[in-house]
Amino acid sequence: MSASSLKSFSIPSFKLPAFVSSIGNKLPQWPHAVALTAALNAVVKMKLLPEDSLERLEGRRFLVDVLDTGGRASFTFRDGLFRPLFYLPETPDLAFSANLSAFLQLMARQEDPDTLFFNRELSIEGDTELGLVVKNMLDAVEWPELPKLPKLSNILSFRT
Amino acid sequence: MQPQKIPELVCPAGSLPALKAAVDNGADTVYIGYRNDTNARNFAGLNFDQKAMVEGIRYAHTHGKHVLMAINTFPQPGREADWHQAVDGAADLGVDAVILADIGLLDYASTRHPDLRLHLSVQGSATSYEAVNFAHREFGARRAVLPRVLTLAQVELVINNTPVEIEVFGFGSLCVMNEGRCWLSSYATGESPNTVGACSPAKYVKWEKSPGQMSTRLNGILIDRCADNEAAGYPTLCKGRFEVNGETYYALEEPTSLNVIEILPEIARIGVSAIKVEGRQRSPTYVAQVTRTLRAALDALASDSEHYHVQPAWQADLARVSEGNQATLGAYNRPWR
């Protein structure tokens, strides 16, 4: 396996079996929100999100619904930080729903959100303009370059 | 074998990562716009602030690529100064050209910035060589982007009768293409691309899910309803389904993407100077995917035009990102005129 084939690793489209969500949605949901807000706050602290877009999130309630795991995370943004909500709002200001693979593909910038929307793999409900702000804010993030991995082929060549 | 001269590849960017994706994947030129209504892609949270513009232009120029600034809406009465400021700002930033639609603004730019290269926007709706030559004669326009309503033969006729470089669309979402003159969005919302810089502004769009279907509303008006397995399009009136004489269907335009990859040799042969990719509203991922594919096709054409053939992988990659899951050659191969 060469380094280039590592680089071209892609997340396949998949859907978890139905029993996963039937178990998942019986589990407490707040740990998802805690994990997600911690990740978002790390990005905020790195100053990767534009201030003017963040201002527009103030006090709004968000819901991320991972359909095939049955996991839901709800959170808000207040005073410069994302904060988990420990209840699921009945009418969030903005809700994204998709299967786990679509969310992973989005985060890895492997798929375009509009493509997923056209193909009905991603749904957006609530305040559409707020949704566009969030989408464009995440698109504008310049992720710091990850440290280069050692070439796997070099490591494997030691086997001989 | 004569090396084939190939058109310049002009790609969209609504953010700095998208601009870098375009440059890194083989664009010759990237077009961008301000975060205001001088830009026909004035969507919430999209586009470049001053800092991102400076960095984007530096990045492109360092890599030997060009940057165009789209100031492609029509100045609103009493607010002409905002559009003038956009043109002055673009000149100060050192962009390689500005893309303008409004005649008054072309006049301002040519008078105030005689060295600034001017491109006539598709929103300027110049479909004949007379219109293109007028922009050249009066304002010194060096390039014109043709509306997506002409057949290939008509494009060739324009090229053969003008000194102005001709740019055509090569890939991206299609609409009713009454370019520069469409008021459908205003009919439903009071706002449209030419006035506020956005078609179907997001604040008027609502998607409602119910078991088995999704409804799309624009300012409260139901414009489409999709079953769960049906592809969706952008929430514009022209792509809505309406009941006409008892039948419900896409009465104006079906969600469709343009894709000219099959006719690239013809486009190059007739002397098109540049092909443009639509989609500043889309993510860096889309820009990378489409730019990479068109670059591969253009390079294949440049290296051996006689044996150019469309790779199935190119079509598959482009079909994947297309709106409406169907691609057409648009007006280029239309038998009627």
From TrEMBL, chain A:
The keyword Cell membrane does not apply. Residues 51-139 form the SCP2 domain. Signal peptide: none annotated. This is Ubiquinone biosynthesis accessory factor UbiT. Keywords: Ubiquinone biosynthesis. Belongs to the UbiT family. Transmembrane segments: none annotated. The keyword Lipoprotein does not apply. Required for O(2)-independent ubiquinone (coenzyme Q) biosynthesis. Likely functions as an accessory factor. GO terms for biological process: ubiquinone biosynthetic process. Pathway: Cofactor biosynthesis; ubiquinone biosynthesis. It comes from Candidatus Propionivibrio dominans.
From TrEMBL, chain B:
Belongs to the peptidase U32 family. UbiU subfamily. InterPro entries: Peptidase_U32, RNA/ubiquinone_mod_enzymes, UbiU. Its cofactor is [4Fe-4S] cluster. Required for O(2)-independent ubiquinone (coenzyme Q) biosynthesis. Together with UbiV, is essential for the C6-hydroxylation reaction in the oxygen-independent ubiquinone biosynthesis pathway. PROSITE patterns: PEPTIDASE_U32. [4Fe-4S] cluster binds at C175, C182, C199, C238. Forms a heterodimer with UbiV. This is Ubiquinone biosynthesis protein UbiU. It comes from Candidatus Propionivibrio dominans. It holds the Pfam family Peptidase_U32. GO terms for molecular function: 4 iron, 4 sulfur cluster binding; metal ion binding. Pathway: Cofactor biosynthesis; ubiquinone biosynthesis. Keywords: 4Fe-4S, Iron, Iron-sulfur, Metal-binding, Ubiquinone biosynthesis. One of its GO terms (biological process) is ubiquinone biosynthetic process.
